[in-house]
Specification:
single chain; 139 residues; mainly alpha; three-stranded antiparallel beta sheet; 6 helices; globular
Length: 139
């Protein structure tokens, strides 16, 4: 079995349906660990301060609580769609604040540094749209 089979389940209509259970576990894990790290790591507090945001420590703690709560809700399959919305906002802000400034060093550097954020954003969009019977043609 390959990773492809782990992420997708064959449907009986000629396409494949994205298996959101695995995506929920992965996204929940990432945001729960990210939220915990923001609470326990002093280095992340210093990093938030360096971004020049108002009330950086308070903002970091708010983001951490949102990530924890939404990550747990997604992991528990409760209010997944509603939990994905604030996490998408956090990801957009993270890309704008920490990745877009890298563009001056080149597109390749930006693409490399933003790769995980972009993947998390795509997975959140999949979770947000999970009720819409996402089908990908197998051709």
């Amino acid at each position: 079995m390959t990773w492809f089979v782990l992420l997708f389940i064959y449907s009986n209509k000629g396409g494949i349906a994205i298996h959101t259970k695995i995506i929920r576990y992965l996204v929940g894990y990432v945001f729960i660990t990210s939220g915990v790290m923001k609470i326990v790591s002093e280095d992340l507090g210093n990093y938030f301060t360096s971004l020049g945001l108002p009330f950086p420590i308070l903002l970091m703690n708010i983001v951490a609580i949102i990530e924890l709560i939404c990550g747990i809700l997604i992991l528990a399959n409760k209010w997944v769609k509603q939990s994905a919305i604030p996490l998408m906002a956090i990801m957009i802000a993270a890309i704008l604040l920490t990745k877009v400034p890298i563009l001056h060093t080149g597109l390749i550097a930006f693409a490399f540094n933003a790769r995980l954020d972009i993947i998390m954003m795509a997975l959140l969009v999949i979770l947000y749209k999970q009720d819409m019977n996402i089908k990908v043609p197998f051709k």
